[in-house]
Amino acid sequence: MADARSFIQDIPISGKAKKRSTGIVGLNLLLDGGFPQGTLIMIYGTPVSGVDLAANQFWKADGGEEGTYFINDGDVDIGMVDALDLHPGMYHQQMAGSRIVVDSLSTVIIRYGIEEALKFLRQARDEMKNRGANLMFVVYTGIHSEMEMTRIMRMADVVIEFKTHVQQAEIERTLAVQKIRNAAAPQRLLPFIITEKGIEASTTSRVV
After folding, report:
1. Which of 64-68, 112-116, 134-138, 180-184 has the lowest mean pLDDT?
2. Is the pLDDT of residue 14 over 50?
3. Are 37 and 17 in contact (CB under 8 A)?
């Protein structure tokens, strides 16, 4: 179960965007409360970097808030939508709630092509804005061309990279918020570890 502190959201102040918890305490602090509502969030890294755990924690971050988790390249857990054979054009009909996850967009691209994936994201972006919901999608590094990665990143409102660095006998994992549309991205790396409960990020971060 996610840490109860991860449910904390910013109290909306006039003129400030409403925020939705990321599901990760340290990331909430780094983003001043969470993800701006109505945005598309891209998280990317290797298959063992923790991106799938981050997606799952976002989906479950608030037990009282409905969400939809489309999974097309992993085990289908209770409550998830088995999207292995589902065309991305059909996702919209099943998008319930405010926390939508596509795990992964990489599989959509491989199966249906980059143009279909971008078409889906364009439609989803309009829907998320209208509903004040958030859609998070997972992208794996090392399997897409630079141009494909560029086009995907340009479509996203928030882009977060999961980094893994092996130093001597230790594995160092960090998050880097590379982009927040219409705002300055934090100039800090957020260290985190992977536990049996998922991702636990430090509440202190390191300057890049």
Report:
1. 64-68
2. no
3. yes
**Confidence at residue 61, expressed as pLDDT on a 0 to 100 scale:** 94
Q: Are 163 and 45 in contact (CB under 8 A)?
A: yes
CA distances from 20 to 90, 134, 163, 168, 190 (A): 25, 8, 23, 37, 19
CATH class of 18-162: alpha beta
Chain CA centroid to CA 165, Å: 21
Q: What is the pLDDT of residue 4?
A: 42
Exposed e or buried b for every residue in 97-113, given b needs 16+ CB within 10 A?
Answer: ebbbbbbbbbbbbbeee
DSSP 48-76: TTTHHHHHHHHHTS-TTS-EEEEESSS--
Nearest partner of 43 among 23, 64, 25, judged by Cα = 23
Cβ atoms of 66 and 97 closer than 8 Å = yes
For residue 2, the tally of other CB atoms under 10 A from its CB is 21
Task: Using the predicted structure, report yes or no on whether residue 53 has a pLDDT greater than 70.
Answer: yes
Domain boundaries, the chain: 18-162
Q: Which two tokens stand for residue 101?
A: 């996850």
Cβ-proximal residues to 132 (8 Å cutoff; 6+ apart), any chain: 18, 37, 38, 98
Element (H, E) at 121: helix 114-131
